[in-house]
Amino acid sequence: MGRDEMLRRSLVALAAAVVVTGVVTASVRKAAATYGFGILAIAGMLLPDWEFFDRDYSQWLTPMPASRRTAAEAAADREHDVWK
């Protein structure tokens, strides 16, 4: 399942949770709080492209080549460089 499909399913589940919260508690404030917390949680887990942000900040505005190593490999290389 790709990130787009997971994002779509998470947003649908959040919408259902907001409706249930609003109906059960009869509180628009609690429904809005559920929505706000859910959007922040989904954004924090699904939206960041950590490999993109793992680069030096001066390179964030340039496109990232498809053949670039993974962030884990780059971090492992940096870790080995520190101990040499």
Automatic annotation (TrEMBL):
PROSITE patterns membership: TAT (PS51318)
GO biological process: anther wall tapetum development; pollen development; signal peptide processing
Transmembrane segments: 35-53
Protein name: Uncharacterized protein
Keyword annotations of the record: Endoplasmic reticulum, Membrane, Transmembrane, Transmembrane helix
Topological type in the membrane: Multi-pass membrane protein
Cellular compartment(s): Endoplasmic reticulum membrane
Principal location listed in the UniProt entry: endoplasmic reticulum
GO CC annotation terms, alphabetical: signal peptidase complex
One family name in Pfam for this protein: SPC12
Family: Belongs to the SPCS1 family.
Keyword Endoplasmic reticulum attached: yes
